[in-house]
């Protein structure tokens, strides 16, 4: 990795407001993806990782920096890499969303991403974005304040990245390929892991648990990443309170809690004070489960790592376990935790909640199925949908087709509301709304202020929490609740003062979630989907296209010259070449 040094910070004074100006740094990374053997739970398997590491390498930047990452694919399948929660202003070409902003990087090829950190500050993460490849291809992103500036809390004595992950004792990607062919359910993981290790409560793992050594009387910053494939996750440290200060690369009003809950794909910054008796304490987590046990089982693993004080004490005794770690199905603890998330909303870190909404959408998120009538029997294919549309990847990426004005790859008719209204949260075990499969997108004018109410449905009696994520934009979470959304009653509960500013948010089981954002990332083709791998591969996805603004600064950048080609579709690339002439 090479780094160009930054110039000194310049301060400008305008109308009494301090504005920072700095020539940011440029960083370079090489990511080499290749197979490597790893042993966990008494079994060895080969899996795709970056630079021989699991989890993968951490990217370190300051706010305002740019990173170039050259990804070399030495694996056996095409893939992309996505920079989760990074806005990428005017630069969807490096968003890394397979078949939406680019075609996969084929085996034996490489592609360099340009990742611009324009407004993010805190912790984010990167991951592969093709089927379930991100299960082993992921890592953290640490974004420090701009040079010359500090955290909005006392500088910690040190910091620790903890990446929460999922472990399968076999090559789960091969299983997922078969599931995509048959339409059946996905497997349950064999364990959850912290920084690549299951911890003391799993077979053949006790001596390999991740350990973090600390000094007494200090305050440390923990950077949490929920990189699990499907699950939301509770996390706690025995005997220690956590002070939550940031989420998804934005600062929060600090609050103290005995546990945290991370939506799938979410990141969180928490402070911990090492003021307990010197000893060993478990840092532990478990799944927050909201699905129906009638249909699916779940992984009851308690993932664990160990916080160890330096000094003299009895190291033979077992570490303490967090007594206040919520149980797997503790809906109330999850809901109460989310209600405490509020933006810092300070002079140095202001917020701008949209107040002039021009586009309103009401989007149902559903699990469903398509029934197939064969001559001798009936069968079904599982799928998921948004507003009764189950996403189908096109044969070339939507961004190329939109930019080159190519027809036939997508349609502009993603609906603003569902085709049917009914009691969405009732017991609907045998009902189906007969979803349509398609590549339908929603087009937004540059600068539009958008409000979306997501509504979870209970079709097939299979309501589940959904971790809703939008590429290229962050949004304000105005409110959430259980039951069917009521536009008269529920809007009275909205937080318009200091709502959290997120890129990923939980849609409650049998409930609703309201977000607002400004569509100010131009000519972007930005995916909007459930982050959970199970729901995403079944089609709980759509695309928002934001038109160009009125000048070059509000318009898409030109594409880089070496965008990956859709090698499986040579006729398409002939059309792309013609359109570029």
Automatic annotation (TrEMBL):
It catalyses: 4 hydroquinone + O2 = 4 benzosemiquinone + 2 H2O. It is found in: Secreted, Extracellular space, Apoplast. Residues 35-146, 160-311, 418-549 form the Plastocyanin-like domain. One of its GO terms (molecular function) is copper ion binding. Residues 1-24 form the signal peptide. Its main location: secreted. GO terms for cellular component: apoplast. It comes from the Eukaryota. Its EC number is 1.10.3.2. One of its GO terms (biological process) is lignin catabolic process. Binds 4 Cu cations per monomer. Its cofactor is Cu cation. Keywords: Apoplast, Copper, Glycoprotein, Lignin degradation, Metal-binding, Oxidoreductase, Repeat, Secreted, Signal. Pfam families: Cu-oxidase (PF00394), Cu-oxidase_2 (PF07731), Cu-oxidase_3 (PF07732). InterPro entries: Cu-oxidase-like_N (IPR011707), Cu-oxidase_2nd (IPR001117), Cu-oxidase_C (IPR011706), Cu-oxidase_fam (IPR045087), Cu_oxidase_CS (IPR033138), Cupredoxin (IPR008972), CuRO_1_LCC (IPR034288), CuRO_2_LCC (IPR034285). Lignin degradation and detoxification of lignin-derived products. PANTHER family: LACCASE, MULTI-COPPER OXIDASE. Belongs to the multicopper oxidase family. This is Laccase.
């Amino acid at each position: 990795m090479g780094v160009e040094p930054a110039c000194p910070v310049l301060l400008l004074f305008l109308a009494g407001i301090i504005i920072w100006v700095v020539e940011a740094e440029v960083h370079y990374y090489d990511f080499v993806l290749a197979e490597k053997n790893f042993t966990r739970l008494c079994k060895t398997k080969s899996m795709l990782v970056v630079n021989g590491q699991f989890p993968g390498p951490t990217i370190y930047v300051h706010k305002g920096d740019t990173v170039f990452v050259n990804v070399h694919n030495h694996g056996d399948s095409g893939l992309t890499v996505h920079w989760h929660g990074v806005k990428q202003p005017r630069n969807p070409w490096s968003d890394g969303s397979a078949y939406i902003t680019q075609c996969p990087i084929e085996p034996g090829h490489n592609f360099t991403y340009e990742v611009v950190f324009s407004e993010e500050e805190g912790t984010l993460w990167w991951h592969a974005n093709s089927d379930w490849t991100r299960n082993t291809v992921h890592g953290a992103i640490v974004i420090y304040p701009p040079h010359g500036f500090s955290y909005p809390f006392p500088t910690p004595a040190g910091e620790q990245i903890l990446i929460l992950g999922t472990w399968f004792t076999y090559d789960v990607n091969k299983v997922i390929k078969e599931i995509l062919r048959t339409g059946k359910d996905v497997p349950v993981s064999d364990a959850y892991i912290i920084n690549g290790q299951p911890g003391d409560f799993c077979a053949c793992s006790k001596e390999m648990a991740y350990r973090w050594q600390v000094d007494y009387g200090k305050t440390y910053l923990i950077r949490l990443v929920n990189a699990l494939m499907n699950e939301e996750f509770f996390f706690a440290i025995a005997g220690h309170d956590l002070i939550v200060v940031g989420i998804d690369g934005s600062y929060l009003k600090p609050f103290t809690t005995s546990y945290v809950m991370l939506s799938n794909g979410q990141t969180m910054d928490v402070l911990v004070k090492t003021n307990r008796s010197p000893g060993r304490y478990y840092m532990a987590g478990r799944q927050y489960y909201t699905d129906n046990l009638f249909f699916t089982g779940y992984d009851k693993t308690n993932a664990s790592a160990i916080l160890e004080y330096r000094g003299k004490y009895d190291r033979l005794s077992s570490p303490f376990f967090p007594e206040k770690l919520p149980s797997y199905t503790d809906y109330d603890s999850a809901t109460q935790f989310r209600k405490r998330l509020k933006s810092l909303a300070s002079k140095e870190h202001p917020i701008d909640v949209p107040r002039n909404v021009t586009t309103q959408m009401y989007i149902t998120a559903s699990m469903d199925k398509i029934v197939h009538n064969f001559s001798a029997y009936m069968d079904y294919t599982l799928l998921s949908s948004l507003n009764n549309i189950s996403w189908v990847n096109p044969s070339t990426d939507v961004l190329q087709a939109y930019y080159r004005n190519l027809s036939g790859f997508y349609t502009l008719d993603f609906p603003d509301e569902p085709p049917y209204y009914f009691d969405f949260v009732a017991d609907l075990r045998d009902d189906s709304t007969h979803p349509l499969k398609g590549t339908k997108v929603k087009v937004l004018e540059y600068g539009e202020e958008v409000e979306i109410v997501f509504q979870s449905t209970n079709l097939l009696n299979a309501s589940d929490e959904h971790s809703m994520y939008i590429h290229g934009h962050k949004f304000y979470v105005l409110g959430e609740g259980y039951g069917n959304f009521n536009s008269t009653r529920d809007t009275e509960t909205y937080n318009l003062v200091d709502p959290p500013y997120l890129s990923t948010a939980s849609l409650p089981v049998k409930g609703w979630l309201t977000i607002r954002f400004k569509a100010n990332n131009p000519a972007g083709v930005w995916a909007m989907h459930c982050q959970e791998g199970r729901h995403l591969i079944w089609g709980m996805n759509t695309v928002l296209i934001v038109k160009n603004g009125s000048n070059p600064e509000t318009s898409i950048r030109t594409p880089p010259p070496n965008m990956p080609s859709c090698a499986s579709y040579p006729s398409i690339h002939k059309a792309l070449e013609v359109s570029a002439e």
